[in-house]
Amino acid sequence: MSARLRFVSALASVFVLAGCAVSGTDGLSATQRSEAHRVEEALNRSGTLEGHFVQVGPGRNGGAGHFTYRPGALSLDYVTPHVMTLRAAGTHLVLDDSQTGAVTRVSLARHPLGLLLHVPVRFVGAIRVTDLQTTPGATQISLAEANNPSQGLLTLRLKDEGDRLQLSSLDGVDARGNRIELSLSDVMQTGDAPKN
């Protein structure tokens, strides 16, 4: 096959795949759409989730500390490997490393964590549900940008506590393949979160 024919074939494939793009909960069964709605309710619940986290990744990096989540904002206060704070809200994530004095600012526009911080979180339009699985006592949902799913994937795991779901872990993979997982424990629903 000539190089020109391979190029035309690849270009045609791109247009065919673009025509197949889906958004929101397209492709999910009625039962899965109902469960996706329960996840939306859990993520948009007023008040704050607080507890402890253990981070694995990216690479061999890791850490642990205290977290708070409220619709639109996530705060991580690290105690290991050393004192650091991460504040994610609006359009940016800011990591303040008190040991080195470094402050890192990252745009959430094309970062998987940004999917969790929409206010409100709705699985229509900009957010696509790529997978949803339920097992007794748990729900797992994977999310991507509807118009650019190659920018990353965010997988949330939630415990099913009968009448409501509660976030138990986040697993994000960015466009470069960097993976980070936060496992949450001692999670409690409290009042309003401190301002970020």
Net shape: globular
How many helices does DSSP assign?
3
> For the CA atoms, what is the radius of gyration?
18 Å
Query: How confident overall, as mean pLDDT?
Result: 85
Report the end-to-end length measured between terminal Cα atoms. 57 Å
Number of domains: 1
Major sheet: size, sense and barrel closure?
11 strands, antiparallel
Please estimate the helix content.
10-25%
Question: What portion of the residues fall into strands of 2 or more residues?
Answer: over 45%
| CATH homologous superfamily placement | Lipoprotein localisation LolA/LolB/LppX
Q: What does this protein structure show overall?
A:
This protein has three helices and eleven strands. It is an alpha+beta fold. The chain has a single domain, classed as outer membrane lipoprotein receptor (LolB), chain A. The protein has an eleven-stranded antiparallel β-sheet with strand order 6-5-4-3-2-1-11-10-9-8-7. Strand 8 and strand 9 form a beta hairpin. It is globular.
Key features of this structure:
196 residues; alpha+beta; outer membrane lipoprotein receptor (LolB), chain A; 11-stranded antiparallel sheet; 46% strand; disordered N terminus
Helix and strand layout, with pairings?
Layout (H helix, E strand, L loop, with lengths): L2 H17 L10 H15 L3 E9 L5 E9 L2 E8 L3 E6 L2 E6 L5 E5 L5 H4 L10 E9 L2 E8 L6 E9 L4 E10 L4 E12 L6
Antiparallel strand pairs: 1-2, 1-11, 2-3, 3-4, 4-5, 5-6, 7-8, 8-9, 9-10, 10-11
